[in-house]
Every structure is written in C-alpha cells, then in structure tokens.
Design a protein that fits this description.
The protein has 240 residues and is α/β, with parallel strands linked by helices. It has 8 helices and 6 strands; from the N terminus they run E-H-H-H-E-H-E-H-E-H-H-E-E-H. It has a single domain, classed as 3-Layer(aba) Sandwich (Undecaprenyl pyrophosphate synthetase). The protein is 42% helix and 15% strand. The chain binds 3-methylbut-3-enyl trihydrogen diphosphate (2 copies) and magnesium ion.
Length: 240
C-alpha cells in the first residue's frame, strides 16, 4: 500500500467541538492535544517520515486575547509534558512560523526542545505556530533579495529549487497527503508552495474526535489516489 512520506494536517474544529458540549472554546483546544499525540504515534509506528501540524495561523492572532492567551499557555504545557516522550520515540521537533511574535519563555522552550531532539531521525515533526504560507514566501523573497543586493546571488539564478530551499520546510519532501478536519474545504494560508501537488483529504470530523481509525481512513484514501503530476494516466502508470 502506498504510504505518504509526509503528512500535513490542519487541525480544525476545536471550538465547535466545545460548543456542542456547552464548554468554553479552550476546552476544545485542550481536547485537541490527544489526537496530536495519536497522529505522532501513528506516523512513528507506520514509518511515515514527516508530519507537519498547523496549530496557530498568522490570522489566528486576531482572535479574542483570552483565547490566544490560553492557546499559548496550552502550547507551553503540552511542550513540557510531551518532550520526554517525543525524545524517546526518536522524534525531531521543529517549529515553523514567525517566532519572534511568541512570548520569550515560549521561544526559549521551543529552542531547547528543538536542540534536544535535533539528532533524532525517526519522525520529522513540524509544528506551525504563528505560521502563514504567505509569510513564508515573503520571508524567502526577502532573503533572496538580500543576497542579490549583497552581490552573492544573481536574479537569473533564482529558480524553483532555490526558492523551495529558502522556505521554512526545506529539507523534506513536499506533503503527499494533506488532511483537514472540521468540514471546511480550504487551505487557510497553510503551506501554500509545498501543497502544489499534495492529495487533499477533507473530513467533517472535528479535530478532538480524530483518532487512530480516522487517520487510517485518510491513509487508505491516499493509497487509492492516482497521482499524475501533470502526465497522462498512461504515462503515470494508471491502473498498474
Ligand atoms: C482549530 O480549531 C484550532 C486553531 C485554529 C487554533 P478552531 O478553534 O478553529 O475551531 P473552530 O473552527 O472554531 O471549530
Ligand atoms: C486554520 O483554522 C488554522 C489552524 C487550524 C491552526 P482556522 O479555523 O483558523 O481557519 P478558517 O478561519 O476557518 O479558514
Ligand atoms: Mg477553525
């Protein structure tokens, strides 16, 4: 069965999960930690090399300050609680996003988690926090422009592979499988460049309800896809 090398997930629906239970939205975010753990374990168990999770978008900063504050607190707690387990499972943890917007303490905790797990190779786990696909592209453009201005790069030498290697996720294959829970069928400023040829899977299930069986259903769906990358079905070996 064809397995994705890289899975990217928009973990959506926490607020609605809480509202259905007459709970505050933060209860939904808290309940969303378990499926994160489950997906990480599934990737490790099934030898999926990379997992990228969208936890907080550039646009999410505009939510009510209490919700933003509790999400940041939750990231800090979850990091403290899970780091030993991640380390023992051979997970290399990295954060992608505009991290100078995060509190000093969260930035420090992130840096130390990243250096502690840097030597691991079982699973490359990216957590996107304060991340936007447009931000990522703008950062890359700025970096390349600086190199041109400094005379170390010629504009005509900028190509897809150079731009790609300047983005936040540069050392991994593009996601093969994208999963979005919560019923919306949109990208919401996630990995805009990297999702160019990704298979897009949407489910109405709310993120806190997403479990190992749900993850397996998405993997089975992926295995049934016929990826052509612009070729004809015959060229791409359809039906073979
Ligand atoms: C996803 O759940 C988590 C974040 C965006 C931080 P939501 O909080 O967007 O949940 P809904 O979409 O309101 O149900
Ligand atoms: C996308 O969810 C961002 C994350 C899950 C972190 P949103 O709930 O913010 O997306 P929209 O607003 O429905 O597009
Ligand atoms: Mg949402």
């Amino acid at each position: 069965m064809a397995l994705p090398r890289h899975v990217a997930i928009i973990m959506d629906g926490n607020g609605r999960w809480a509202r259905k239970r007459l709970l505050p939205r933060v209860a939904g975010h808290r309940a969303g930690v378990t499926p994160v753990r489950v997906c990480i374990e599934q990737c490790v168990r099934q030898d999926i090399a990379a997992l990228t999770l969208f936890a907080f978008s550039s646009e999410n900063w505009a939510r009510p300050p209490e919700e933003v504050g509790s999400l940041m607190g939750l990231f800090l707690d979850a990091l403290d609680r899970e780091i030993d387990e991640l380390q023992s499972n051979g997970v290399r943890l990295r954060f992608i996003g505009e991290r100078h917007n995060l509190s000093q303490v969260l930035q420090q905790r992130i840096s130390s988690a990243e250096s502690r797990t840097a030597g691991n190779s079982r699973l490359a786990l990216q957590i996107a926090v304060s991340y936007g696909g447009r931000w990522d592209l703008v950062e890359a453009a700025r970096l390349l422009a600086q190199r041109c201005a400094a005379g170390t790069l010629l504009p005509q030498d900028i190509d897809e592979s150079l731009l790609s290697s300047t983005l936040s996720v540069s050392d991994l294959p593009d996601p093969d499988l994208f999963i979005r829970t919560g019923g919306e069928q949109r990208i919401s400023n996630f990995l805009l460049w990297n999702l160019a040829y990704t298979e897009l899977y949407f489910t109405d299930q709310l993120w806190p309800d997403f479990d190992a069986a749900s993850f397996q259903i998405a993997l089975d769906w992926f295995a049934s896809r016929n990826r052509r990358f612009g070729l004809t079905g015959e060229q791409a070996g359809a039906g073979s």
